[in-house]
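WARN no homologs supplied; continuing
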Amino acid sequence: MIVWRSATGIIAALTVIAFVVSTYIVGIDEAAWKAGFVPARLSGLMAELDAISLPGFLTPLTAAFLHSGFMHILFNMLILLFCGRFVEAALGWERFIILYIAGAYGAAAAQWVMDPAAALPMIGASGAVSAIFGAYAIGFGKPRPLVQSPALNRFLNTLWLLAAWIAIQWLIDLMAAMEGTLIATPAHVGGFVVGLLMFGILHHNVMTRHRNATITIAEERPPR
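OK structure emitted
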C-alpha cells in the first residue's frame, strides 16, 4: 500500500495542512476557540463566542485537525501513519474512516463526562489516533494464552490492554502536571476504548462480506 494514497495518508495530509493554516495564518488560539471542543459549550454553560464559531456537535471532529505545536502533531501523525496502514488494510478505507471519526467523538465524550463544565478548548488528534492504536493493539497484538477459552482470553487481553493504556496515560498526565501542562487524559482513554471495541465489530463485518462474496462467486461458477 502506498501510504499517501490511502485514507491514512489523506487524513495525515489534511491534518498537516490544518496545522499550518491554524498556526501560521489564523492563529492557533483563535482556531482553538472557534473549532476546538469545549465541554462547557456542549453542556450549555457557555454561549457561542461569535457567529463564526462552528456548531458544538462538529467540534469533536474539527478539534482533531488542530494541534498546539510541532511535537504535538508529529507524535500523533507518526502513530497514525505506522498503525493506521495496518488497521486500514484490515478494515478497508471506509471502515477506517468510520473508526477514526468514532474515536474523535468517543474521546470528546469521555472528556465531557469527566468535566462537563470545562471551559478550555480541547484540540489534537490524540483521541482519534488512540482509537487507531487501540484497534492496532487488539487486532495485531499477540496475546499470551492465559486460559483455554478463546473468548475469555480475548476478553482478558482487552482488559490488560486497557489497564496498561490507562496506566501510561496516568503517568504522562502526572509528568505533564509537574510541568504545568494540561493533558486531555480522559480523551485518550475514551478513544482507545473505541478502538478496542469497534475493531472486532468492523473487522467481522469485513470478513462476513468477503465470505458472502466468495460463496456467491462459487455458486455462479458453471460446473465443469
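Residues 210-220 have pLDDT under 50 and may be disordered.
OK
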